[in-house]
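Private note to self, pasted from the team thread so I don't lose it. Backbone tokens:
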């Protein structure tokens, strides 16, 4: 449905997006994840045709976003991080304006306005000025305008930023409901946001893709191992003897004495293999006092931090070794999409040099 290939965006000498490539399939909720400044919003804006890329291609349902902008944009509903609301309008007036900009008229426009207001639960505030609405309702109005025209793809850029916990839960439920009829791309820097609603995850760091996988597969790859920490009351000799015995039932172990004087053994293990009983039996057999047995399991947050760490070559090695992708892409940065004026005067990482959304 969406194919992004070798996408590059530069601002002067700064590369905000560095050769990004990925494919979005129909009928799924995609999480587009990365730390602040990673290039998420830049990529989303390029996909939607509101920002010119330096090089690379974006194809939506077979339509090039630059060569066939009207056909491509009809397939997309887009909510930027800051909703493009006219605050002196009511939600109904605003949706009427957006619908007309998308080419809707008459009964079709009226029916779609009623439908999206119902789906986003804003009908009760239809005649209130947008400037008097809460942040949560403003986000709902923004999502409603993205749904007008019944686009196959809904793209939401940081839709829960600034919301309170109750509003966040409500927006997440709304996103899940959108996923039943639309392909959804949710851009966020919050891992829990992605894990709550998404089927597939694309992680970028410093303008490059470092992970592209199903959420379940990503968890399987990186959370399958854990570390079992033993805290022991014993001598150094007993510690080393026990370590040698435990090495046979674990995937690796280390022993040391902490600053608090407590002896510790760290045992690596696979989460599908419970070694606790065997470990306890060896400790008991050695007549050593076990003070604590603490499992440390990797979480998706650990994975995210490792993949997006600001560690230069190490980050590239992780991506190459784990995902088998080339992170160092050198596309032609001098290329410019046909028919789109390039603006290199903005040095903002995520870019704000927008082109008209409905152009």
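Design output:
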């Amino acid at each position: 449905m969406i194919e992004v290939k070798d996408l590059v965006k530069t601002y002067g000498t700064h590369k905000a997006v560095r050769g990004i490539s990925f494919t979005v399939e129909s009928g799924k909720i995609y999480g587009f994840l990365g730390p602040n400044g990673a290039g998420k919003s830049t990529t989303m804006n390029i996909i939607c045709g509101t920002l010119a890329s330096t090089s690379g291609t974006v194809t939506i349902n077979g339509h090039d976003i630059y060569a066939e902008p009207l056909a491509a944009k009809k397939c997309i509903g887009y909510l930027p991080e800051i909703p493009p609301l006219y605050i002196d309008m009511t939600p109904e007036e605003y949706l009427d304006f957006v619908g007309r900009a998308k080419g809707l008229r008459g009964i079709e426009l009226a029916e779609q306005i009623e439908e999206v207001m119902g789906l986003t639960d804003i009908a009760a505030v239809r005649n209130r000025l947008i400037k008097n609405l809460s942040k949560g309702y403003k986000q709902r109005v923004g999502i409603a305008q993205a749904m007008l025209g019944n686009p196959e793809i809904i793209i939401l850029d940081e839709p829960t930023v600034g919301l309170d916990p109750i509003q966040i839960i409500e927006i997440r439920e709304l996103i899940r409901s959108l996923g039943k009829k639309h392909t959804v791309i949710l851009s966020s820097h919050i891992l829990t946001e992605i894990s709550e609603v998404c089927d597939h995850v694309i992680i970028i760091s410093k303008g490059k893709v470092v992970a592209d996988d199903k959420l379940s597969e990503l968890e399987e790859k990186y959370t399958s191992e854990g570390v079992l920490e033993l805290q022991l009351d014993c001598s150094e000799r007993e510690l080393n003897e026990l370590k040698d015995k435990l090495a046979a039932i674990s995937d690796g172990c280390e022993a040391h004495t902490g600053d608090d004087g407590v002896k510790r053994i760290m045992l690596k293990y696979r989460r599908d293999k419970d070694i606790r009983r065997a470990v306890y039996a060896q400790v008991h057999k050695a007549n050593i006092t076990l003070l604590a047995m603490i499992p440390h399991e990797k979480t998706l947050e650990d994975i995210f931090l490792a993949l997006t760490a600001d560690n230069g070559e190490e980050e590239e090695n992780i991506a190459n070794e784990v995902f088998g992708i080339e992170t160092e892409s050198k596309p032609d940065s001098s290329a410019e999409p046909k028919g789109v004026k390039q603006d290199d005067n903005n040095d903002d990482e995520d870019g704000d040099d927008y082109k008209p959304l409905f152009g």
